[in-house]
Amino acid sequence: MDEGATKRKVIIERIEFDGPVHLPDSVVAQIITDTNELGFWSDSNWLDQLTEARLRSAWQDMGYFRVNVTAKASSLGGDSQAERFIVTAHVDEGLQYHFGDLRFADVRLPGTVFSEIKLHADFPLQEGDLFRVNLVRKGIEELDNLYLSHGYINFTSVPETAIDDRLQRISLTISLDQGKQYQVGSVEVLGIDQNLASGLRTIIRPGEIFNIKAAWDFLRENSSLLPAYASSDDLSTRPRGMTDSVDVLFDGRPCPPLN
């Protein structure tokens, strides 16, 4: 884009493919709608984002884990507000994979806090299902939420894939580092409505297991009642020395001005 030119909103008219693909027309249409609604500007890297975040992800959610997508955009012109494009994409789909084995490995302890039966049951993919990347991400997120809701506020999980091209299967091993389980020490809530503060204190009670996930959910669900400058990110914790307790602070007050 020429220096000084007015940036224009990107409008994708259609996406064409230079060969046969397995992506349904309805999915392509939804990608176009979603991308146009995001409101990209013509001087941004919108084509890269479309290629990676939309097109490639769509194939990966159908089991084409190693798909490679390249694209180019041709302008159809426009006006001072918007520029319209046709996108032509080349797709190397590769193999379509199914889900193989799922294993959990605790990096510090011989066993996991939760039974492997529960961890497997809560995971949204079962052996033989299409290997859908969005469901893998969802499963890891749910795993994180499970541990966070039981006081393991430093929990981390690291997934590792093992790809078998012959069987077209991808197995997954998730290494777990649960850390210490924490209870609530003290609770301090500042800068918000007293009714909202009382509601938060019913979730975070001294002496109980610290369910940080429930606290985050409560703050997000009541975000419209928070001050404009406050959010769930204002919830902080401080361990009490070498104990299994954390002091919890939610500070909804505005930050002091910078000198």
What is the strand and helix layout of this fold?
Elements: E1 9-17, H1 25-38, H2 46-60, E2 68-78, E3 82-92, E4 98-106, H3 116-122, H4 133-148, E5 156-164, E6 169-177, E7 183-190, H5 194-203, H6 212-221, E8 235-239, E9 245-251
Parallel strand pairs: 1-3, 4-6, 7-9
Antiparallel strand pairs: 2-3, 5-6, 8-9
Helix pairs in contact: 1-2
- Helix fraction by DSSP (H/I, runs of at least 4): 25-40%
Determine the mean pLDDT: 92
What is the CATH topology descriptor of the largest domain?
A: Ubiquitin-like (UB roll)
Widest sheet: strand ordering: 1-3-2
Radius of gyration: 24 Å
Terminal CA distance reads: 38 Å
What is the percentage of strand-forming residues? 25-35%
CATH domain class of the largest domain: Alpha Beta
CATH architecture of the largest domain: Roll
Low-confidence stretches: none
> Structural class, from secondary structure content?
alpha/beta
Order of helices and strands: EHHEEEHHEEEHHEE
Count of DSSP H/I helices = 6
Task: Give the overall shape, derived from the CA principal axes.
Answer: flat
Q: What's the main sheet like? A: 3 strands, mixed
* Total number of strands: 9
The tally of structural domains comes to 3
